[in-house]
Amino acid sequence: MKQLWAPWRAKFILGPKSGGCIFCDEPKENRDKENFIVYRGSNAFIMLNIFPYNNGHLMISPYRHVTNVEDLDANECTELFDLVKKSVTALKTSMKPSGFNIGINVGRASGAGFEHLHIQVVPRWIGDTNYMPVLAEVKVISEHLEETYEKLLKSFSALRS
After folding, report:
1. Has 144 been annotated as catalytic?
2. DSSP designation for 133
3. pLDDT tens across 151-161, in order?
4. I need a surface site. Which of 43, 84, 113, 116 has the fewest CB within 10 A?
5. What pTM does this model have?
6. Which of 65, 116, 118, 144 is an active site residue?
7. 56 — alpha (psi -120 to 50), left (phi > 0) or beta?
8. DSSP H or E stretch at residue 21
């Protein structure tokens, strides 16, 4: 696969690696902007995926380290789905997608890279898959992650009222 120049990724690639779980560690740091956490609930939170499939690609995770769906308690289940609804609303408000892919990653084999259960919310636009992935095996992400964060933060802040 060919690569596109994406200087914002260097911070992650060259930065220190904790070796831990991003879904456990990053919410504890209270550095939401640096960790791209856009919303915090009581039992779960929402963060941008720093290796997005599309602009606005969100991950929703319980704070508690849970690896299996059946291990979620009732409050976590309720809040996770509530945060899916909030994510869709915030993305519709700030980015106007045509649709969504929503899925739950369970286990390392799911492609998640983390054992910590999380829900992926990927906004989709008609025509967002074009000739680039087909011919050049390259996915173009058209907006800087920090710009996407600011857009979504504003939309999620409006949902708190």
Report:
1. no
2. I
3. 888 888 888 75
4. 113
5. 0.77
6. 118
7. left
8. none
Tokens 């800087």 belong to 144
CATH 3.30.428.10 fits domain 20-31+38-159: yes
Q: Name residues whose C-beta falls within 8 Å of residue 43's C-beta, 6 or more positions apart in sequence.
A: 62, 63, 64, 75, 76, 79, 80
CA distances from 27 to 31, 37, 39, 99, 137 (A): 8, 8, 10, 28, 34
Inter-residue contact 54 to 123 (CB < 8 Å): yes
- For residues 129 and 137, the answer to whether their CB atoms sit within 8 Å is no
Q: What is the DSSP letter of 55?
A: T
Beta strands in the chain (DSSP E): 37-40, 44-48, 58-62, 99-105, 118-124
Cβ proximity of 100 and 122 under 8 Å:
yes
> Within 10 A of 99 (CB to CB), how many other CB atoms are there?
11
